[in-house]
Amino acid sequence: MNGASLVARQFRYTNTAFWRNPASAFFTFAFPLMFLVIFTTLFGNSDAVIGGETMKTSTIFVASMAAFSVITACYTNIAISVSFSRDQGILKRLRGTPLPGWTYLTARVVHATAIALVLVAICAAFGALVYEASLPTGMSLVRFLVALLVGAASFAALGLAITAAIPNADASPAIVNASILPLLFLSGVFVPITDDAPGWIDVISKVFPVRHLVDSMNAGFLGTPFRWSDVLVIGLWGLAGLVMASRFFTWEPRK
Amino acid sequence: MSERVIDVRGLRKAYGDMVAVSDIDLHVDRGEVFALLGPNGAGKTSTTEILEGYRSRTAGEVSVLGYDPASRAAAFRERIGIVLQSTGVDPFLTVRETIDMYAGYYPRRRSTGEVIGVVGLDEKADTRVNKLSGGQQRRLDVAIALAGDPDVLFLDEPTTGFDPSARRNAWEIVRNLTAIGKTVFLTTHLMDEAQYLAHRVAVISRGEIVAEGPPDTIAGRDRMLSHIRYRLPEGAPSPPAWGQTVEPDGSFTVRAEDATRMAHEITGWALERGFSLERLEVSQPSLEDVYLELTDGEGSP
What we know:
The complex is a heterodimer.
Chain A: H1 3-19, H2 22-43, E1 47-50, E2 53-56, H3 58-87, H4 90-95, H5 101-131, H6 138-162, H7 172-186, H8 199-207, H9 209-222, H10 228-248
Antiparallel strand pairs in A: 1-2
Helix pairs in contact in A: 1-5, 2-3, 2-5, 3-5, 3-6, 3-7, 3-9, 5-6, 6-9, 6-10, 9-10
Chain B: E1 4-15, E2 18-29, E3 33-37, H1 44-52, E4 59-64, H2 74-77, E5 80-83, H3 95-103, H4 112-119, H5 134-146, E6 152-156, H6 164-179, E7 183-187, H7 191-197, E8 200-205, E9 208-213, E10 226-231, E11 245-246, E12 252-256, H8 259-272, E13 278-283, H9 287-295
Helix pairs in contact in B: 3-4, 3-5, 4-5
């Protein structure tokens, strides 16, 4: 079998197992939607002019939750579930088979990316149907999808990379959340960053990839300017994650 | 001339200053069951994991099926099966799906149904892994290792947690494998397992192989003195001096070179005086006796 069909085959098993863990699957999907409902309820859903168009303010939250979905499904989920697979010896066993390690990890990345796409689609559909949020169309949709795919793959690579810093599975949720939650706040995922915010927040958010993902999602939903430089920064982080993962990823439980 | 499947010369593994494996030699021929015995920390796992390709070595030559395991060549891994001491599988897949998945990694695979039959999980074929008992999961581990029809099977304490009848079944599985030319490298802390399964055993202690040979004759076991144990009934006269020692429970043990003659003498003495010996027992030193002597009470096996 060639690499692609091995990945496809592994993807199927990963997917089967994912849906058979209903608690995990449910919360992966419920989380972004829950935040969308909370934010729209808290901040209201009025008309506003954004990017030259009149739209519902719920669109802002749909865009934020699209970014959040990508990060949950790819970064958080991969980092935690791979840490558990490592601790349970699943990875070590695989390492003893002829399956090339990269095909297994690629299948997990592809699966996480697929879940992220479905999540974003659900958020967008829910926002449009329930809150009359605007959706990307035309070229803006194409650019949005490119940014989405690059974002998903990059955050998945970063999720694999961070497992090298996780000593055991029990510590994984704490480490993963500590590494991502501050950035989510500093990058305007939950709370919009106003012009009064101190300059260092702006600097930090521009260095790390989360803000760039949020901006790309905003460009799709809100019609704000789309910048390929955002996609580039995200992609570079993804590449860095890939390099780190290929150097430091371990298949055996840490002692 | 038998075919060398595993050949190890001067293998050394050091972790910093700590030498885990100190220049050992060993070999396993095709169709053999070879058991490596030793206390925890004696170098068993290091040796096994070097042979499996999990760990690099510090020095020495290692060849498994003609490959250097450290190269991690796919062609090498296609021909070995590994049952690790502690290992997991996805809890949400069924037994059949799990074996199918692993079988798919190998070019030469056994049919999933057949493998399930070999380990006796037929009734659990469509059960999810997280619904299996500990012993059933261990059998699944063995099934996964067999899925790629390996030439060499590494079994690291394969029957830990088995009840006695499941253990017997597992042993039969291993015996049947050697009947079709498979080679088995076994580590175990169960002496009866090594006694029953292994054609040859090696005892490793503090990183060195201290004895090696067939379980019946290792370390001169066959030349060691037999033990004859008995108890005297109430009111029996004192026996002559046979060199017996008194055990804590009041029974006597006589060590004899020729057990037949000595037992005859003891029982003859009792019969002449018109009484029977209680709990009469004649035994050879067990593999465990030899093992404990060799490892010098270094720890549990």
